[in-house]
Amino acid sequence: MHNKIWLSSPHMGGTELNFIHEAFEQNWVAPLGPNVNNFENDLKQYLDHHVEVAALSSGTAALHLALIVIGVQPEDEVICQTFTFSASANPIAYLGAKPVFVDSEKNTWNMDPEYLEAAIKDRIAQGKKPKAIIVVHLYGMPAKMDDIVEISDRYKIPLIEDAAEALGSTYKGQKCGTFGEMSVLSFNGNKIITTSGGGALVCRTKEAKEKSIFLSTQARDQAPHYQHSEIGYNYRMSNISAGIGRGQMEVLDKRIAARRNNNLFYQDIFREIEGVKVFKEPNDDYFSNHWLSAIEIDPNTAGFCRQELHTALKKENIESRPLWKPMHLQPVFENTPYYGENVAEELFNNGLCLPSGSSLTDEDRERIKKVVAENF
Ligand SMILES: *Cc1c(COP(=O)(O)O)cnc(C)c1O
């Protein structure tokens, strides 16, 4: 049997261990230290030097703190894209707040601005103005940010960007992760760069960053003893993880180029197959890091369905995965308000994510191409 080809594997650049050795030599083996500060600074320089970045233990922790800093309280409503990973929505529930899910549109697979506005109007008419909007840039594809930012401004509802999958993606030249009141990045093992596990909160002001770090380090008041006036969390990134992150930042541009190249590879091998669409940018306003490459199969035209391709790949030890199951269809979010039609649901039914790692070799791509050529 051939080696397994994974959907998205960690891909070290080579200098990560230098930063970890440094941490050991200086005994900064703790959730603070020079790697943490320098990794934050690397991210700030990369994204936009006007933003402030707090390195945290995960993207999920970052989203939790974003909601707290924005002021979301128990029973408040928070609008969230339905077509996403559960980590986008779970932190709403951590706070005892209520999600309201919104469907996607077909061009970017992300939040549909029309349903977003319909949801806001209807919630207001029912007497409850949503406290925040969580938009996601799924698989690295930027959402329709002009429209979404405009709606967030017009209704004065703060926007949180879940850019966990979109580090390096841009919309009209602006980096994803810099549009929101607060934005979330993830450095989990499967993301475009990794710290083995970690995340970051991108803030607009120094005050918001300081507040986030205060909450992420157990909310200790200024006092010689341990004094607390607020509930705190243990969400800071460790100096060892941040060392991995510093090494990874040196190769981020290469990782983006490699994943974009995978997307071109899939466009090439599916070009002749009717009924299969490779997910790509709708026009030049969008630049996706193509964290994961995905296809949508119309089984009537293609003559095969996504399960058949999944099975054929699996037989050759190649991983693939259905697109995210929408949150409004998840048992845990049963009876949650939902605005939309069946765009996300159809994507879930007919879509498949294909191996997309930056470490895929030509040999790996040949194996994938062969499965497609021989079976479909
Ligand atoms: C990975 C991911 C998260 C969560 O990040 P973690 O660092 O794994 O907690 C949140 N949202 C989306 C869309 C993700 O893909």
Quick summary of this structure?
With 376 residues, the chain is an alpha/beta fold. It is built from 13 helices and 15 strands. The two termini are 22 Å apart.
Give the helices and strands, then pairings.
Blueprint: H1 16-25, H2 34-47, E1 52-56, H3 59-70, E2 77-81, H4 90-94, E3 98-102, H5 113-125, E4 132-136, H6 145-154, E5 159-162, E6 170-171, E7 174-175, E8 182-186, E9 199-203, H7 206-216, H8 239-249, H9 252-270, E10 276-278, E11 286-287, E12 293-297, H10 299-302, H11 306-315, E13 321-322, E14 338-339, H12 343-350, E15 351-354, H13 362-375
Parallel strand pairs: 2-3, 2-4, 3-14, 4-5, 5-8
Antiparallel strand pairs: 1-9, 6-7, 6-11, 8-9, 10-12, 12-15, 13-15
Helix pairs in contact: 1-8, 2-8
This protein binds pyridoxal-5'-phosphate.
